[in-house]
Design goal:
- About 40% of the residues lie in helices and about 15% in strands.
- By secondary structure, the chain is of the alpha/beta class.
C-alpha cells in the first residue's frame, strides 16, 4: 500500500457542488439555481472579450494595474490596497494560506458559504461553526466562539443563502472586539444588490484587521470568467500578493471585467430590475403562505413546512423546466433558494409554485 498521503484536513473536504444547470429532456430550462444575472453581461463587456481573444498569445500584465485602477475609481478606494483573483474564492484561499494553518481556528457561521470551510481544511486549520439568530449573523455568538487560536472570521454580507444583512454598527463592534491576532473577512459577493452598502470598504479603511472581498460573477454577469478582488490593509495585501501566482488572471479576464465595471448605465439597470422584481417575487410567494425573509441580494430563501414539501416542490419545478437550489447543505432542509430572474422568469416561477401549492391542498 502506498504511503503517499495528502496534508491533514484535505480528505475531510466534501467537494463543492454548484447549482444544477440541466434537466434531462429539457433543452432550455429556466435556470434560477446559481444567482446569475438573468440579463447576462453588458454588450460592452462582450465586445471587449471578443477583441481580447485576438491576443491569446500574449501574457497578461502581472500587477492587474488597469483593473485595480478602475475598481479604485468606481468604488472610491485605494488601488494599492486591492488584490485581484480568480473569483473572490481565490482571495479567500489566499487568506487561509497566508494566515491559518495546523493548530489555528477559522470561524464561519452556520449558514455561511461552503468555501470558507473548504479553504480552511485545505490548509490544515480547524473550521469553527457558530450559530446564527433567525438566519442573521450573530456578532455575540462569533465573539463567544473566538479563542487565542482564532485567526480568521468569515462573514458573508448579505448572507448566502439567507439574503439577510448584518448592520454596519454591529460589524464595527465585532471588528473592535476580535482577538488581536484575528482578521475579519467581509465577503461582499452580493454587496452591490444592497442599497447604499459599500461592502465594508469604509470599515477596512478605518481599521487594520478587516478585509473585504468582492466578485464580478453576480451583478456584472461574468460568472463564467471568474474574476474577483479583495481590499484590505496594505500589509495584508502585500502578504497575499506574495503567494498569488503572477499570471492568475488572463488578459481577457482583466479587460472584460474592466469593461463591465465601467458600463455604469447597464449596471444601474440590472440593480434596479433586481430590486423591483425581488420585491414582487417575495410578495407573490408570501401570498402563497410561504416563509420568505426580506432579501438584500439577488435571490430569495423560500422556506416550506418541512423537507418533504421543499423536495416535492423542487421536483415539481424541474418537471416544469425550472431549476432552483435545494439548500439542505446550508442548514435549510426545508428551503429552496431561488434566483431573482427577469420579469418573465419571476412570473413563471411564482405561477408554477402556485400550481404546486394548489395541487397539494
Amino acid at each position: 500500500m502506498s504511503t503517499i498521503k495528502p496534508q491533514p484536513g484535505i480528505l475531510d473536504i466534501a467537494p463543492y457542488v454548484g447549482g444544477s444547470s440541466k434537466i434531462e429532456g429539457v433543452s432550455e430550462p429556466l435556470k434560477l439555481s446559481s444567482n446569475e444575472n438573468p440579463f447576462g453581461p453588458s454588450q460592452k463587456a462582450v465586445e471587449t472579450f471578443r477583441r481580447a481573444g485576438l491576443d491569446l498569445h500574449r501574457y497578461p500584465n502581472t500587477d492587474h494595474g488597469a483593473l485595480r485602477a478602475a475598481i479604485a475609481e468606481v468604488h472610491r478606494v485605494d488601488a494599492d490596497r486591492i488584490i485581484c483573483g480568480v473569483g473572490s474564492d481565490e482571495v479567500i484561499t489566499f487568506l487561509c494560506q497566508a494566515y491559518a494553518g495546523p493548530g489555528d481556528e477559522v470561524i464561519h457561521t452556520e449558514h455561511g458559504f461552503s468555501m470558507y470551510k473548504i479553504s480552511t481544511l485545505a490548509v490544515g486549520a480547524t473550521p469553527v461553526t457558530v450559530a446564527e439568530t433567525d438566519r442573521v449573523v450573530d456578532v455575540d455568538a462569533i465573539l463567544a466562539g473566538c479563542t487565542d487560536r482564532t485567526r480568521l472570521v468569515f462573514i458573508a454580507n448579505p448572507g448566502n443563502p439567507t439574503g439577510t444583512m448584518v448592520p454596519m454598527k454591529k460589524l464595527k463592534r465585532l471588528a473592535a472586539a476580535l482577538p488581536a491576532q484575528a482578521l475579519l473577512v467581509l465577503d461582499g459577493a452580493y454587496a452591490e444588490f444592497a442599497e447604499g452598502f459599500d461592502g465594508g470598504a469604509a470599515l477596512v479603511e478605518a481599521r487594520d484587521n478587516v478585509v473585504m472581498t468582492r466578485t464580478f460573477s453576480k451583478l456584472y454577469g461574468l460568472g463564467g470568467l471568474r474574476v474577483g478582488w479583495g481590499y484590505g490593509p496594505a500589509d495584508v495585501i502585500d502578504v497575499l500578493n506574495r503567494i498569488r501566482g503572477p499570471f492568475n488572471l488572463s488578459k481577457p479576464q482583466l479587460e472584460t471585467a474592466e469593461a463591465a465595471l465601467r458600463d455604469t448605465q447597464y449596471v444601474t439597470k440590472c440593480k434596479s430590475e433586481n430590486a423591483r422584481l425581488r420585491v414582487w417575487l417575495r410578495e407573490a410567494l408570501l401570498a402563497l403562505g410561504l416563509e420568505v425573509d426580506e432579501s438584500h441580494a439577488n435571490f430569495l430563501l423560500v422556506r416550506f413546512a418541512d423537507q418533504a414539501e421543499a423536495v416535492a416542490c423542487d421536483t415539481f419545478l424541474k418537471d416544469q423546466g425550472i431549476i432552483v437550489r435545494l439548500v439542505a447543505g446550508y442548514g435549510f432542509p426545508n428551503g429552496l433558494r431561488i434566483t431573482v430572474g427577469d420579469e418573465a422568469g419571476c412570473r413563471r416561477v411564482a405561477h408554477t409554485i402556485g400550481l404546486f401549492k394548489g395541487a397539494g391542498e
